[in-house]
């Protein structure tokens, strides 16, 4: 099965084009005011048009209420919603029913025991994203460029469809693939020259590293 690759936190047409030309299966747009990658829904809606028919456009939200999600869905028309906060299984089910869109639920992982949090979401969320726990005092629940011990994913039920995330870079992605052979990868900070500033060269380097793995 081909490896899913999501380039997340895109905010310009040229870096989005680099992600699509590189072969991204998913492109992510952030809706979180404290993030340097934050977009307004209409802005993401204009950008995401280039991804139509080429990659899944993912709206990344954090404990968003119905009004915020309504605006994102109306103005951006995402293919998928990523819920990156403390959403419960009931809330995930509610969001799916309200918007009729697939949901990727994110989890913060540090040790094997953290994977037990996934069970109540199986059959509710369509996909999972395993990210590192944010560093103490961090403003963002994700997009911190921090990795976790990927080996905790070894032995995970192969029926769990997930993206490995957190601190991936062109330098370490081959090692992540070698260690856990994840079905998908998600990168943001690792393809930036500064927080929130995606770099076309680093995006291309990331795809080269994945292909060479
Ligand atoms: O990237 C952000 O600013 C962000 C904000 C709020 C929730 C999630 C966010 N990003 C997600 O975290 C992963 C990992 O990022 P990184 O590669 O470690 O920088 C990113 O791909 C988004 O899915």
From the structure above, extract its key features.
8-stranded parallel beta barrel; 10 strands; binds ligand LGQLAAA5; 6 helices; tryptophan biosynthesis; Aldolase_TIM; globular; RibuloseP-bd_barrel; 213 residues; two-stranded antiparallel ribbon; alpha/beta; TIM Barrel
Short description:
This protein has helices at 13-22, 41-47, 66-76, 89-99, 173-180, 200-212; strands at 4-7, 26-31, 56-61, 80-83, 103-109, 127-132, 162-165, 184-187, 192-194, 197-198. The protein has 213 residues and is an alpha/beta fold.
Q: Oligomeric status of the shown chains? A: single chain
The average pLDDT value, as a whole number, equals 97
> Bound compounds, please?
the ligand O=C(O)c1ccccc1N[C@@H]1O[C@H](COP(=O)(O)O)[C@@H](O)[C@H]1O
Q: How are the strands of the biggest sheet laid out side by side?
A: 1-2-3-4-5-6-7-8
What's the count of strands? 10
CATH homologous superfamily grouping: Aldolase class I
Measured by DSSP, the beta-strand proportion falls in 15-25%
Task: Describe the sheet with the most strands.
Answer: 8 strands, parallel, barrel
CATH topology: TIM Barrel
Helical proportion, percent range: 25-40%
User: What is the correct CATH architecture?
Assistant: Alpha-Beta Barrel
Spans of 5+ residues with little confidence (pLDDT < 50)? none
Question: What is the overall silhouette?
Answer: globular
**What class, by secondary structure content?**
alpha/beta
**Number of distinct helices:** 6
* Rg (C-alpha, Å): 16 Å
Spatial separation of the terminal alpha carbons? 15 Å
CATH class: Alpha Beta
Tell me the count of domains.
1
Order of helices and strands: EHEHEHEHEEEHEEEH
């Amino acid at each position: 099965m081909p490896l899913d690759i999501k380039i997340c936190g895109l905010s310009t047409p040229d870096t989005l084009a680099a992600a699509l030309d590189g072969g991204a299966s998913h492109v992510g747009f952030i809706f979180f005011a404290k993030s340097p990658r934050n977009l307004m829904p209409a802005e993401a809606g204009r950008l995401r048009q280039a991804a139509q028919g080429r990659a899944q456009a993912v709206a990344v939200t954090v404990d968003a209420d119905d009004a915020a999600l309504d605006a994102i869905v109306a103005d951006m028309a995402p293919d998928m919603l990523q819920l990156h906060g403390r959403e419960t299984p009931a809330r995930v089910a509610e969001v799916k029913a309200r918007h009729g869109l697939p949901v990727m639920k994110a989890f913060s992982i540090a040790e094997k025991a953290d994977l037990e949090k996934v069970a109540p979401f199986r059959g509710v969320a369509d996909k999972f994203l395993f990210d590192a726990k944010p560093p103490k005092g961090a403003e963002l629940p994700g997009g911190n460029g921090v990795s976790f011990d990927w080996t905790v994913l070894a032995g995970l039920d192969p029926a769990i469809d997930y993206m490995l995330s957190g601190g991936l870079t062109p330098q370490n992605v081959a090692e992540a693939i070698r260690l856990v052979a994840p079905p998908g990868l998600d990168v943001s900070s690792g393809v930036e020259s500064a927080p929130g500033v995606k770099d076309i060269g680093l995006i291309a380097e990331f795809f080269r590293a994945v292909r060479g793995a």
